[in-house]
Amino acid sequence: MSNFLRQVKITQPQLATFLQHQCRAEASTASSTGVTQSGSIVLDNRKAPPPLDADRMRMHPRIGNREIVGYGLKGKPEYFDLAMFPCPSIRWEADTAEITALRKKEQGDWKQLSVDEKKRLYRASFRQTFEEFCAPSGVWKWAIGWTLIGIAGLTFAYDGWRRICYRFDKPDSMADEKLKRQLEFHIAARQGPMTGLASKWDYETEMFSTKLKSCLILILLIHCCSTNEDVYKEELYIRPLASGHTYFNLLFTTVASPDILKSNIVHHYHLFPKVIADIVRSNGVSEFHVSLTQGLWRYDRWGMPIVGAPPGAEVWAWFKSDEQRDVASRWTSFAHELGGLLCASLNFVASNVSSSSPYYSFRPQSTLPKSNGANLDNSLLRYAALPREIVCTENLTPWKKLLPCVAGGSNHNGLAGLLDNAPKLYNSDYHSLRMDFRQICANTACTSTQLELSMALAIVVNTATSKPNYNEWTFRSVFGSNVAQSCPLSSLTNVYVDLQLSSTHSLNITPEPDYSIKQGTTPIVIYDLNSDQRKSTTFAMSCTHSKQPTSNTDSSSPPIVVHRYATGYGVRDGGIKTVIKINEEQNKNQITLLYFEQIPWYFRVFLHTLKITTLDDDTTEIKPDYISYTPGKDRERSYQLEIVIKTDQSIVISFEFEMAFLKWNEFPPDPNHGFYIPSAVISTLLPSKSNYILRSLNSFSLNQSLSSWSDGFVRLYSESLLVNLPTPDFSMPFNVICLGCTAVALAFGGLHNLTTKEFCFGPKRAQTPLRQRLQDLRVRLMASRRALAQRLFKRTPPQQQRHEHAE
């Protein structure tokens, strides 16, 4: 090293850097061979520590006689307790005689060291253990405490300063006598007259005026009279299914006087929703039915529902004939108002493009006197369906606010309290919201009518457990809560449990029912929540049922099952095939089927391709008794098909259509998803009522439907179809737009400069002499040479040192 330094000419800073680098390299080489092993812990610090002598002399007043054991965090002899760097560069304590003796002892067998000696060695190297310096210090408490103390001190200081600086006597106008005289002057001068109830107060007699008393008495009389007319019922129908599911149908029925629809008198709305009465009155609606459904009812697995509904949204209404406005405008207004009320997209059904007027499929369900129900003109009917409508809690929330026991507050009593946990209801295979408004007879002679509003919620929940053929459910597992108390406004609160599976399954229901009835061959148990023993108590229900090993028959097979498929391939031609399976064991006689199809205009139906055959033999054609076909018109009217068929066996209805090519602005935002065809509707009268419960047209209430023989009217809905239309490549217009915008953006700058800026000649620059130019060129060449030399010498330091030594 010394010989090399004597032969090389080097400056003092370069010498110091070289010595420091050489010392660290030697320390690194020496430390790479020294590995300290103690027990099962291996400490290997291969990184070179800093130069010992220079740093120790510089840091001696701070570190004393403490040993430097490693490089540390920053290459300096400093002690830190850090979780990210737990090994500091120096020890915590200085070397004493005791510590030196222990260090010599630890170089041997660690088993000879006691626990106290090991702790003493650890405390000599480290100030705290890892758990100690990582433990929370609680500084935030000190900071928050002093902050609150400071805020309190500033508040008290400001309050004291305000009391001292703003201390003055009140003016004479603030005295009680002056304030009273000022109020009398304002009343006498009629300054800012009050409105509402306060304006009826007489300041001279200090009591309300006699006119107000008369109005209050009149309001009380109207309230008493209207309370006796409104009737509200709550019902829950439960049916365990053989497929491992359970069918729940919540029904809320409100009956009110038809006088609330009269616009020339003032009415008090006690139980009937005022917003429904306003919609019906303003649009001249005689009756309406709307359903919002998520999922498809499986007839072959679940049997027959009380009331069927298609997937998506369905709405149909009958309008009065003695109104000044036409039906089209009233239908548009009604759809918009009802859609806004239920937070649904019913505004899309307002036009004639998506609505139709069937002849026989949707007859009025109001039970009116013969003189009032003689006019059945189908031009007063509007029907529409939206199979793509999504149903969620946004629809359930405004729907349940129409119930009397929900609109009053947050503590919902009665069966309406089961609707509080909305996300629990949508964890089901089938979910349907319904609202039916119609007129019914007030007495058996039907001399007067009443208004009936029926609101139903139907869900099908999978109650199967991990145990095969075993089902279990409770109110809390299905709805998220139990029935707290019965609704005080409800005149009837019943829970019906259909024991149709009792012949093939063993059912265990708790608590014990109040009484039971038999509807045909189906036993039904009933719980009366308005009874004295259940009126003020929480009603919790649970059920377990399992299939009996000896049972092989299935009594829940429905009399009719409907399935529908889309046929064809490609994006030009297609077809629809509907299969109607009839249970020939239950229906031995002929039944009349009313088949209805509403198909959008962009599926051009060909009537000559209509074919009706039997399911067993496709060559045996069946001639329909009646066919009603309304051809569609592009962008103006949808296709409408109604067929009346009498048969005693399963049939297949098929026809073909051609797909239209839409304009680019007629496609939805997701055109490749496809276009929906609404469900087909099959209406019929079933001859038998032994194994299923249906809603009676005489009354939508289940209590009256079970107590009287039903007419057997059912309306079945098939699957909605999803068909792909010819769809253009929407990425090409996007690419063209991007390319055009890019070209315009690039050309805009030049065109803008040429059209807006003025070009002129500037002052002539002075000419530089040739000698000055050559001198500038020489300076640039020398600078380039110097920069190139620095780069070369920086890359090869030994060559640069030899060159400097030679110079």
TrEMBL record:
It is a single-pass membrane protein. GO terms for cellular component: GPI-anchor transamidase complex; mitochondrial inner membrane; respiratory chain complex IV. Residues 29-40 have a biased composition (Polar residues). Keywords: Membrane, Mitochondrion, Mitochondrion inner membrane, Transmembrane, Transmembrane helix. SUPFAM superfamilies: Mitochondrial cytochrome c oxidase subunit IV (SSF81406). It is found in: Mitochondrion inner membrane. GO terms for biological process: attachment of GPI anchor to protein; mitochondrial electron transport, cytochrome c to oxygen. Residues 29-57 are annotated as: Disordered. Belongs to the cytochrome c oxidase IV family. This is Cytochrome c oxidase subunit 4. It comes from Adineta ricciae (Rotifer).
